[in-house]
Design a protein that fits this description.
The chain has 262 residues and is an alpha+beta fold. It has one domain: DD-peptidase/beta-lactamase superfamily (Beta-lactamase, 3-Layer(aba) Sandwich). A 6-stranded antiparallel β-sheet has the order 2-1-6-5-4-3, with helices on both faces. A hairpin with a 2-residue loop joins β4 and β5.
């Protein structure tokens, strides 16, 4: 049964957790979490809790990665236009963050702050056969989009594992998804979250309920540094949405530090 909780709708809002990363330990063997890292230049895998890494879950807002690619390729969105939520189709809720109420929202803001009603409205301009074609082309997760057109990625039909997230990110980075060069270049600028002298971080969060008192939190992406490109996919459980939002990114980053990636 699909859960319809308001907190599910802001699954990707916070890209940076509130707590200090130094206060949170990384993911360890036996915990209800997993981290998969693939370092391309050395062809090296680092895996914590492999059985969980093989298990497929709802992608929640990490689905905005393939979704944005499809929307760009179909010329449904662009980086020059600013957007506003269609409040007739998606009436505002009291809990909506301020950025969702803005009259001018860029595509990068919509991606980074997971402006779900915008993505739902955009996805409604597509149809299931063309989405299915792209997801098959991408080989993304189980490719099951039988759920609602504007929400099959929200604890519904489509499922993806941490390993599958990594393989998809590798195909994206290697430009082997069958998309235009312009789509790859545009998305790269949207995906980039931190640009430092010694590394660049490309990432997307996601979170939502998969059972009563069980939320999953995702953090997936890639890190480019002097040692090459490192793809990562992390997920964990927490009993509430607030718990997930507070620690998922810091726990993932602490794990990446433990593994020598950050």
């Amino acid at each position: 049964m699909q859960l319809q909780w308001p907190s599910l709708l802001i699954s990707g809002l916070l890209l940076l957790a509130v707590n200090s990363a130094a206060a949170i330990e990384g993911c360890h063997k036996g915990e209800q979490c997993t981290m998969v890292v693939y370092s391309e230049q050395t062809d090296t895998w680092q895996i914590i809790n492999k059985s969980r890494a093989e298990r497929a879950f709802s992608p929640f807002s990490t689905y905005k990665i393939p979704n944005t690619l499809i929307l760009l390729e179909k010329n449904k969105v662009d980086t020059k236009t600013t957007y506003r939520v269609n409040t007739k189709a998606y009436p505002p809720k009291k809990w909506w963050p301020n950025v969702w109420h803005k009259e001018e929202i860029t595509l990068k803001e919509a991606f980074s702050y997971s402006v779900l009603p915008l993505y739902q409205d955009w996805t409604n301009t597509l149809n299931k056969p063309e989405i299915k074609t792209y997801l098959s082309q991408f080989d993304y997760g189980n490719q099951d989009i039988n759920g609602p057109l504007d929400g099959f990625w929200l604890n519904s039909s489509i499922q993806v594992s941490a390993f599958e997230q990594i393989e998809f990110l590798r195909r994206l980075n290697n430009k082997s998804l069958g998309l235009s060069e312009q789509t790859y270049q545009t998305f790269d600028s949207i995906f980039l979250q931190e640009n430092h002298a010694d590394y660049q971080l490309y990432a997307k969060t996601g979170a939502g309920p998969i059972a009563r008192k069980t939320y999953i939190g995702w953090y997936v992406g890639k890190i480019k540094n002097a040692r090459g490109t490192h793809y990562f996919a992390f997920n964990m459980y927490a009993p509430t949405f607030n718990d997930i939002v507070k620690i998922r990114v810091d726990k993932a980053r602490a794990t990446l530090k433990d593994l020598g990636i950050l």
